[in-house]
Amino acid sequence: MKVNILNSKKISEMVKNNEFKLIIDLREEELYLAGHLPEAVNISTDEINDNLEHIRSITNEGILLYCANGNQSITVGKVLLLDGFNNVYSLANGIKNYKYKLYK
User: Fold this and answer.
1) Digits of tens for pLDDT over the chain (104 positions)?
2) Is the pTM for the entire model greater than 0.85?
3) 4-97 CATH fold
4) Hey, where are the domains in the chain?
């Protein structure tokens, strides 16, 4: 299993089509509040391990992760896969290269 890395165009299409069961913004809260993907929840990278059961209570698959530059989302995605999650996605190059509307 591997983390599915998708570009911003594909992510934007999938978000519009409600193809993700959960979207997690891994950045710090102030960056999340400055602009995030629609329906995204903010769980910073250092809080993921403490929130695995909460995440599992929402869904076990179809999870989109994103961070500032794409590195943390891949690392966290691997953690989720090792913990039994399925269909984990990462925004290629992070939110800095996302060319579509962000929400506040």
Assistant:
1) 899 999 999 999 999 999 999 999 999 999 999 999 999 999 999 999 999 999 999 999 999 999 999 999 999 999 999 999 999 999 999 999 898 999 99
2) yes
3) Oxidized Rhodanese; domain 1 (3.40.250)
4) 4-97
